[in-house]
Amino acid sequence: xxTSVLMAIAKAxxxxxxxxxxxxxxxxxxxxEAVERTIHDGDAVAxxxxxxxxxxxxxxxxxxxxxxDLTLIxxxxxxxxxxxxxxxxxxRLIFSWGGNPGVGSLHRFRDAVEHSWPAAxxxxxxxxxxxxxxxxxxxxxxxxxxxxxxNGTGLETLNAGxxxxxxxxxxxxxxxxxxxxxxxxxxxxxxxIHAQRADRSGNVQFWGIAGVQKEAVLASxxxxxxxxxxxxxxxxxxxxxxxxxxxxxxxxxxxGGAHPSYALGYSARDNDYYxxxxxxxxxxxxxxxxxxxxxxxxxxxQL
Amino acid sequence: xxxxxSMIPAEPGELTYTxxxxxxxxxxRALRDGMTCFVGIGLPSAAANLARATHAPGLVLIYxxxxxxxxxxxxxxxxxxxxxxxxxxxxxxxxxxxxYWLQPGRIDVGFLSAAQIDKFGxxxxxxxxxxxxxxxxxxxxxxxxxxxxxxxxxxxxVVRQSARSFVERVxxxxxxxxxxxxxxxxxxxxxxxxxxxxxxxxxxxxPDPVTLEFTLTGLYPGVSAAAAKERTGWDLAVxxxxxxxxxxxxAELDALRNLQRSTG
Lengths: 303, 264
Known about the structure:
The complex is a heterodimer of chains A (303) and B (264). With 303 residues, chain A is α/β, with parallel strands linked by helices. In chain A, 33% of the residues lie in helices and 23% in strands. Chain A has 2 domains: 40-127 and 187-296, Glutaconate Coenzyme A-transferase, CATH 3.40.1080.10; 144-184, no CATH class. Chain A has helices at 2-13, 31-38, 56-64, 78-86, 107-115, 128-140, 154-161, 213-219, 271-282, 284-296; strands at residues 27-28, 44-47, 70-73, 90-95, 99-100, 104-105, 122-125, 144-147, 168-172, 179-184, 190-199, 204-206, 222-231, 241-243, 250-253. Chain B is an alpha/beta fold and 264 residues long. Chain B has a single domain (19-263), classed as Glutaconate Coenzyme A-transferase. Chain B has 8 helices and 15 strands. Chain B has helices at 19-29, 43-53, 82-87, 94-102, 145-151, 184-188, 225-230, 250-263, and strands at 36-39, 60-62, 67-70, 90-91, 109-112, 116-118, 123-124, 127-128, 137-138, 154-158, 166-167, 195-199, 203-207, 214-219, 237-244. A 10-stranded mixed β-sheet of chain B has the order 4-3-2-1-5-10-12-13-14-15, sandwiched between helices. Chain B has a 3-stranded mixed β-sheet with strand order 7-6-11, with no helix packed on it. A two-stranded antiparallel ribbon of chain B has the order 8-9. In chain B, helix 1 packs across helix 2 (43-53) and helix 2 (43-53) crosses helix 8. The model of chain B is unreliable at 1-6 (pLDDT under 50). Chains A and B meet through helix 5, helix 6, helix 7 and helix 9 of A and helix 3, helix 4, strand 9 and helix 5 of B.
C-alpha cells in the first residue's frame, strides 16, 4: 500500500526529477553490450560531441543493431546522424544545424526531409543557443531554460503553430517585467558520448572542445561513454571535464571511436573523409554500399 | 571551395584575382585590429583569418564551438577543428559561449553568411520555398546565427550575389536583420545594432540611414552598378556616387593564397 502511494508520487514528480540511478557505478562493457542495454527501439537518444569527440563507432553499432523509431537529438546532426537517418533508424530529429561542416549538405537528411526516403522524418528545429539551453535545463532538473533568443525568427512563428508540443514560448521576467524566451528541457532516454579517457572505476575525463556532452549525459536517464583509453587512474588535467563514474551507465573501450571526428591529443579530424562523404551521401546506392561494407560487415567497435 | 571562375580583368602590369578573392579581401578590411569577432564558417572565416594575417593581428576570433581568441595558421574546415582549440586563449562549453559571451552583447561584430538575404538584411539558412513542411530545398538551419544576428554589437554578412539569393523577402527568417523596416529590432528587443554591411563578390551594400533598405554603396574595380542591379532580386537602390573599392594589394593576395593553400 505504502509502496504504491510512493510510486504514484514518484511518477507524478518524475517530470521534474532526474530518474537516473545515481548510486551505481558505471560498468565497463563491450560497445555492443553497452548499446544493447542502453538504446531501445523508440528511445530518444542524444549522441553529442560538437565537431570534436563525435561518437561515430557507437552510432554505427546502433545501425548494426538495427534500432528503429528513434528520436535523434543532436545540435549538429553531422555525418553521424546522416548515416543513422539513411539507415532507417530515425523517426524524428531534434537539431539546430544540419549541414556537412565546410562541405555542404547532409544528403541523407535532405532526402528524408524532402522525399521521405528511406522513411518520413519529423523534425523539431532550434537554434544552437536554444538547444544548448534545453540541455542545461535537462541537466539542471528544470522544466525549461530562459534566454534572449528567437525573437522575430521563423522558428518562433513556426513553434507557436505547434499547439500540441511547443518548445519555445515567451516568458515574463518576474523581477523586471521584460519578455524573454523559454525553451523546454531536453530529457533524453539515453546519451552517447566519446571521451579521451576513463579509469577502471568508470570515471570519465575529456578535454578540448567540450560542447554539450556534460549537459547531455546529466540530462539523460542512461548513458554510454566510449573512450580512447582506459587507465589505472585519471591524472588531473586543467580544464578537463570529469564525469564521475556514478553519473555514467556504461563505459566501452573504443580507440578511434570518434573517427572521422577526432579526439584531441589522440587523433586529428579527418577532413578528407568529410569531403568524400558528400559523394557517398548524395547517392542512395553509394550510401547502401557504404552501409553494407563499412557498417554491417564490420565487427562492433571497429571503424 | 573558392570559385576560380570569374577573373577580374586587369590592366597590363596589374594583379589578377578572382571575384571571390576580392570579396574576401573587402570583408577582411571591414574588421579592425583589436575587435572581437564571432565567426561563421566558410567565407566569413576566410575573411576573418585574412584580417588577422594582415592588418588586424590583434583581432579576437570567437567560434561557436567555444574557442575564444583562436589563432589558426591555416583555414579550418569546420568551426571545431582541433587547431582552433589548441591555439585559443580559452575554450569554453557550448552553453557558455552562447550564454556568457554572446548573449550579453560582449562581442563587437558577428560575421555571417547566408543562403538567401533580403533588402532588410534578414537571413535565410533554413528552407527554400514558402512551405516549411514541403521545402524545395532543405538547408542546414539556424546554427548559432539567430543569436549572433541578435546580440553582436553589429553584423557583417559575406555572401555571393545573385538574383536568386538576393530577394525582396526571404522565404524563412532564420536570423533577423531589420525585420520589415525601422523600429522592428527595438520592438523585438534585439540588443545589437543589426547588419551594417553586406559584402558580396560585386561590391558592398549598406543600409539606407532612414529606410534601412540595403543600398549599393561600393563597387569593385571593373564592376558596374547595372551588373549589381541585375544580380539583385529587388529593385536595388544605388548611392549617388558609389565608392570604387581598391582591388587587393599584393600583401593581401599573398596572405589569402597562403591561408587557402595551407588548407589543402
